[in-house]
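ok so i was messing around last nite and threw this chain in just to see what happens. nothing serious, just curious
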Amino acid sequence: MSFAEQIPFLLGVAGIIGAALIVLRTAEVGLGWLPVVAIVRAIIQLGLVAVLLQGALTTWWTVVAFVGLMLTTASVTSFRRARSLPRGPWSAVVGVAVGSAVTISLVFALGLVVGEHEKVIAVSGIVLGNSMMIATLAMRRFAANIDSGVGEVEAWLSLGARPRRAVQRLRQDAIREALIPNLDQTKNTGLVTLPGAFVGALFGGASPVEAAQFQIVVLSSLVLAGVITSVLSTYLAANIAQLPSSSRG
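result:
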């Protein structure tokens, strides 16, 4: 398909993002051109992925390399978003890596999805993206909880409690808040939303039953990856030698 044939599509996308910008500017949210930057990056990156999937990713070493690239990108994003905690950045990276690796390995080890090139990339991308989001939500909420609950933390520490015990309640709250959006979407799947994996499988020629099975595998994988990521990343970050500077005022 030529570039000229893509122009109506690109104009339509521009119209949607333009509408989002107008709403944000009217509400004075202050995100600037971030929505435009995000969609432009998505277009470029998905275009490159489409080219790769058409012929480049036909051997296992290229698949592994591509999954490694996705993991690196997710880790870097999580690293940047967790800087508000002293041990946050590397804790988030470990959480994303372990949560994703365990989940992806189980999916294929249990034979829930056939280990073909395209399916490995698809499942890995979905799981990694979700783990990255969960890590960001958990770590940001954890940092905010510590900031607002500094008195509680200092009281526990003054009683001789270890750092992880001092922030235990705040950590548990952060984990719950990070997981709730994903769990709400999961329990309302088919009633409120038709997820992308289900629709994509249908478009790819799968029967409704096969598409539903694939979506169930994806949903259960996202739950496991999210749980491991949020629990592990906040556990590692909880062993803090000192409170964040913002909490100490």
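not much to say yet. The chain has a mean pLDDT of 84.
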